[in-house]
Specification:
alpha/beta, 7 strands, globular, 42% helix, 244 residues
Length: 244
């Protein structure tokens, strides 16, 4: 098993990409801690993992609240004794023309997509430093590399996330901690439902929509990287084309 005896926190673990990653990590031997605001969704995923003899802890968490994140990390250490992997997956994606966006939309998105990651990294990194090892995987977006109309808030937040990840990677590599971005491409999740159902004009450059499970292989690849010599500060982008 690729992740035997590892402990992984996955935010946004109640559905979509987060759920798929949590299920895969547990199947590969990791003890997984799933965090999200929806208790019912977390419990459903936890029950699935438990039914497959996996080790799991579900912790309802509002990532915008730093005290919630600190509780998440504390409960993880109390239960499993360490934290090897942090997957920052949770996010929101408001749509609309830039001039129509509101301060409230900017604030909520920034607090979730950027400050939620900041809170998690601040809480986890000191533990990883004491361990002398750690692996941070931030779920980014191609929107953080090239801006798109009607997605200004999301684009800005993901660009910030990419830069934050690379800054952390440079600061932490001597402590045995690596940090990378995984760009999954267009995935059929609740976050992107309007787009993949054809209710918006956005098109993902003709790339077909993936199922969340198709992100798993790359998420496992990053999680299994050796932290003493693995790659860090990189942006891994998944592309999948239609079969010929």
């Amino acid at each position: 098993m690729q992740l035997q005896d590892k402990v992984a926190i996955i935010t946004g673990g109640g559905r979509g990409i987060g759920r798929a990653i949590a299920m895969a990590y547990a199947a590969e031997g990791a003890s997984v801690v799933i965090a999200a605001r929806s208790t019912s969704q977390l419990n459903e995923v936890a029950d699935e993992i438990t039914a497959q003899d996996g080790a799991v802890l579900a912790v309802p968490t509002d990532l915008q609240v730093r005290a919630d994140v600190e509780t998440l990390v504390q409960k993880t250490v109390e239960r499993f004794g360490k934290i090897d992997i942090l997957v920052n997956n949770a996010g929101i994606n408001p749509r609309g023309l830039f001039l129509d966006t509101t301060d409230a939309q900017w604030e909520q998105t920034w607090q979730t997509n950027v400050m939620g990651v900041v809170h998690c990294c601040r809480a986890v990194l000191p533990i990883m430093q004491r361990q002398g090892t750690g692996n941070i995987i931030n779920i980014g977006s191609g929107m953080g590399q090239v801006g798109h109309a009607n997605l200004s808030i999301y684009c800005a937040s993901k660009a910030a996330l990419h830069g934050l990840t690379q800054a952390i990677a440079e600061e932490m590599w001597q402590d045995g901690i690596i940090a990378n971005v995984l760009i999954p491409g267009p995935v059929k999740t609740e976050l992107s439902k309007a787009a993949w159902q054809g209710k918006t004009t956005f098109r993902a450059q003709n790339e077909p929509w993936k199922e969340p499970e198709q992100v798993v292989a790359s998420a496992l690849f990053l999680a299994a990287q050796p932290t003493d010599s693995g790659m860090t500060g990189q942006i891994l982008s998944i592309m999948r084309r239609n079969s010929p």
